[in-house]
Specification:
heterodimer, A: 290 residues, alpha/beta, 9 helices, B: 138 residues, Helicase, Ruva Protein, domain 3, 3-stranded antiparallel β-sheet, 8 strands
Chain lengths: 290, 138
Amino acid sequence: MKSYHDIAGDGGSNIAEQVEAGREKIARALSGVRHRVAVGSGKGGVGKSTLTRALASALSARGLAVAILDADLNGPTQARMSGLRGAVPLPGPDGLTLPRSRDGVRVFSVGELIPESQALEFASVASGDAHTWRATKEFALLGDLLGSIAWGRLDVLFFDLPPGAERTAQFADFLGDETSLVLVTLPSEISRGVVARSLAAVPDAKQRLAGYVENMSGYFCADCGEVKPLFPESGEVPLDLPLLGRVPFDPALARACDRGVSLSELPASAATRALEGVAERLVQFLETPR
Amino acid sequence: MKFLCVPCDKPMTMMSVSPPDRGSLSVVYGCPECGYEMAMLTNAHETQMVSSLGVKVGSSEAVEAGAKKCPFSAMIAPAAEETASGVRWTAEASARMESVPEFVRPMARTGIERFAEESGYREIDLKVLDEARARFGM
């Protein structure tokens, strides 16, 4: 009797071919993108989205063509930060066309499509077991988006990743080794420990890692103009990675994110200067042949 | 997944896929040698796992063959659709919407229909779609 491997093809289900066709569609859609950068961290609340938004704004101000894909489908923030809530992507002749923020960054975020009071739901025929298939569904959806959006010619496409060490590893795998990684941490030992664990979960991280950013690295006091410590530093969790920069916490920057005001519209401060420095080092990394 | 007709030792070929019914797919296979037919009936979990990959079981011909079993299917796709607000979509404009990922489509449709109504258009064609994109700076 014949075995599985004696029979050519996949039995007519056509699933393998469709998966392959999906990959090819993504490759075609991204063929005009020079650099892909995923901003992640195992830890939540460290400022991944703020950093993504600020870097995109800084690079756009330098004349680069930049876009952001908010890959955090369940906790999207880029629509608000970009001032694009309710700005729906529309179909063009070459694919889905994205709305553009005031500073010229094209953005896809689920926050453009559904209000903040609403959660993203997937239609299901197997109710009650969402945990078994949800991740697969999310990655299929992200693949669909990547292949359907008319990215055109881009210098940098940023991916704002959801939190979680395992999610960082999954996304690193999904986005492939052409995507560089930027990790974000707080100065706290707990945060650095989780980031170190995230790094360990990505097998080829060392080759793809642009570096890490220490966010909320002190508090910028507008009254005295000084940066004061927010977290005690013990140095117990060393991160053996290139440091792209330390960004102090600045309430003005937090307010700007809430209101969709871009980095280039803010007056210069210790935080904006630090973010410009991170952008400069990121560009250097991207333009260095590997 | 492949099916083998054991008496003939021949791989069975997929003949049709019926649309999901309460979470279950019916996929019919036949043996090209003896003509024996059998159906694979999936449970909701199996259907969900496949659909989570963003794919459909079967070649487009097999899916179409299953759909053609409905005698009315050819009658429910008019050249232009009319929305609740009375704005009509031309077939070309509807076809362009097919390239939009499914979960984005309802919001994109609503946005375009709102633009069409505000601009006084009664019909949405490719020109209106391009005009909407231009209006929103895309």
